[in-house]
Write a structure and sequence with these properties.
The chain contains eleven helices and 18 strands. It is of the alpha+beta class. The strands form five sheets. Strands 5-1-2-6-7-8 form a six-stranded mixed β-sheet. Strand 15 and strand 16 form a beta hairpin.
């Protein structure tokens, strides 16, 4: 059995207000893009203001271990090629998923066994025993959480406004492991005075100043914020401060840290768009907690307004979605013919996409990718087939077709909004087989945490060779 060695650095920061944050970054030949997560690459361990090294993690893994995913040349993503759509026809996928689930159960079993020791350590992070208690916490997580997925990070802290402790887990920008983190938290035991979350939570507003200084190493800059709904149904934020420097990277880091602390990870991952930093005078007096509250309130109010503006009924219940328009992209798929221009442009932008940006009813935006055949050439045949598929889905109350198109590599796309993916899959398979479409036909997903998922339309459909780069991320110049 081929064995590999992964060396990682586990870093822990213990804050004066008893907030403990730990980050685990394992690397073995792969790197994390800076755009995914700055915090993951700029860890600090703070104890009395000095950086400290907490532990070195040395893990030996077999090629079948959930710590490795050879199909992605990755050693930080522990998940199989698929998770929610894992197929028994691919035993390695199923085996890896089962192992990950086993490690989740083992993690919580050991957590329950050592809950009293973990609680005692959290309550005694200062004084002579503080160092030993920090080691106990980090060693426990290192020894047990890493096998679930080494990209998962975590954060211990007190329960705001009540006795007890919280443990927040995080994907730290790795959307591909969100499903694992969700399952991890769903399987958490019910323990008195403990709360477990699948996202880093906002810090209490009266601790923002201290938390910012410990993370950034400087006092909070005076700031005001403006929040606007973007064309892609995300929330763009503009920070204004008279103390912004000429260094755009430093300004961006300040804004990012404040946003992380004030809004929490769920808002940042699913709703945050572009953050801009603008130098300028404030419109009124500055107080960290008060201005942080204004930011949080404004962001949440805009999010509420955005969600309220989304359709009140499923898309398939709207008989006429509008006149189709051809959109052009700089990707392997040059065009999309769709009546939903705003959604189409967002899908083709290559940016992080979540279906909840455009549906508050749990619908998912997906697409069928089919190899061109005589039934699909020329392009004029796409529209009548799309209409037939649309009628089939609407009749069953499963969803509707929202777009069609083709790419430069002899593939045809039918974009859909599905109200129930699981129920729609058998109907999609029957449709593809009735039309004798290629046996390489697959159902694919637009959501950032589902990009690796796929469903074959035939029993003998093989794994797509382009899973690493969906069409909307594969730029033609690559």
């Amino acid at each position: 059995m081929d064995r590999r060695l992964i060396v990682g650095l586990l870093l822990c920061r213990v804050m004066d207000n008893m907030w403990t944050e730990s980050r685990c970054n394992l690397s073995g030949g792969s790197s994390v893009p800076e755009s995914q997560s700055n915090s993951m690459k700029k860890h600090s361990i703070v104890g009395n203001g000095l950086p400290l090294l907490a532990a070195i993690l040395l893990t030996s893994c077999t090629s079948e271990s959930p710590l490795l995913d050879e199909s992605r040349n990755s050693t930080y993503v522990a998940m199989p090629t698929r998770w929610s759509t894992a197929d028994a026809k691919y035993p390695r996928e199923v085996r890896l998923k089962e192992k990950t689930l086993k490690y989740i159960d083992e993690f919580w079993s050991k957590f329950k066994q050592q809950e009293s020791q973990l609680t005692l350590a959290l309550e005694n992070l200062r004084g002579e025993s503080g160092g030993a208690n920090r080691d106990m916490l980090t060693n426990f997580m290192k020894d047990n959480l890493s096998y679930v997925d080494p990209a998962i990070t975590y954060e211990f802290g007190p329960l705001p406004g009540q006795p007890g402790h919280k443990l927040d887990f995080s994907t730290d920008g790795h959307e591909e492991i969100k499903q694992i983190v969700d399952v991890l938290v769903a399987k958490a035991p019910k323990l008195p005075k403990w709360k477990f979350c699948a996202h880093k939570q906002p810090v209490p507003l009266d601790t923002v100043a201290g938390a910012f200084k410990r993370r950034a190493g400087i006092d909070v800059l005076p700031f005001e914020t403006q929040v606007d709904i973007s064309a892609s149904n995300r929330l763009d934020v503009t920070f204004t401060s008279p103390d912004f420097s000429k260094d755009e990277a430093d300004n961006a880091k300040v804004c990012s840290i404040l946003t992380d602390l004030i809004l929490g990870e769920d808002n940042s991952d699913n709703w945050l768009g572009v953050i801009n930093a603008k130098q300028g005078a404030l419109g009124g007096p500055f107080n960290v907690a008060a201005n942080a509250k204004l930011y949080a309130d404004l962001f949440n109010a805009k999010k509420k307004a955005l969600i309220a503006s989304l359709p009140a009924v499923p898309y398939f219940k709207t008989a006429d979605l509008g006149k189709p328009e051809v959109l052009h992209f700089h990707t392997v798929r040059p065009t999309m013919n769709t009546p939903l221009k705003k959604i189409g442009e967002t899908l083709g932008s290559g940016k992080n996409f979540q279906s909840e940006q455009f549906s508050k009813l749990g619908e998912k935006f997906v697409y069928l990718k089919l190899a061109k055949s005589k039934d699909l050439v020329p392009a004029e045949k796409h529209e009548p087939i799309g209409k037939e598929l649309d009628a089939t889905l609407r009749k069953a109350n499963f969803g509707c077709v929202i777009g069609t198109g083709s790419d430069t590599k002899d593939s045809v796309y039918f974009d859909m909004c599905l109200a129930n993916v699981d129920k729609a899959i058998p109907e999609l398979k029957k449709f593809c087989q009735a039309h004798n479409f290629s046996h390489e036909s697959t159902l694919r997903f637009y959501d950032a945490d589902l990009l690796h998922e796929w469903v074959g339309m035939y029993e003998d459909t093989s794994e797509p060779k382009d899973m690493a780069k969906p069409w909307f991320l594969a730029r033609t110049e690559d």
